[in-house]
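Hi R.,

Here's the chain you asked about this morning:
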Amino acid sequence: MSGRADSDLSPDTRADDADDVGHGDDAEGAGHGEHGEHGEHDDDTPHRARRARWAAVGAGAVLTLAGTAAALLRLTGSVPAFVPAAYACGAGACALAAVLGSRGRTRRALWLLIAGLMVMALGDQFD
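And here is the predicted structure, written out as tokens:
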């Protein structure tokens, strides 16, 4: 199933009889069209996975560095201890996300990046 809305026939152009011989031919033709589409995507799948891994590692590394720098800067100021701790915990979560992303766990890495960034934002609210 391709999921495209325009690939399905409208109700007024369909055959009235469900046992129509031509209906089997349409289903077979649609199957070949999907196989051809999946064949093209199969070649691209390793590249997409590699890009997702690099994106997770890159975003995790950048957010880890930003969180660590913010925690160190906040340590030198007169802010509650919760603020640098929140930045450090968020940076740690982003570092873990980078590790998970490098191992191919990109969905978990994405959610961990979001959680780490939210922890850093929470710490920023108390600044």
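One quick note: The chain has one domain: 5-125.

Cheers,
M.
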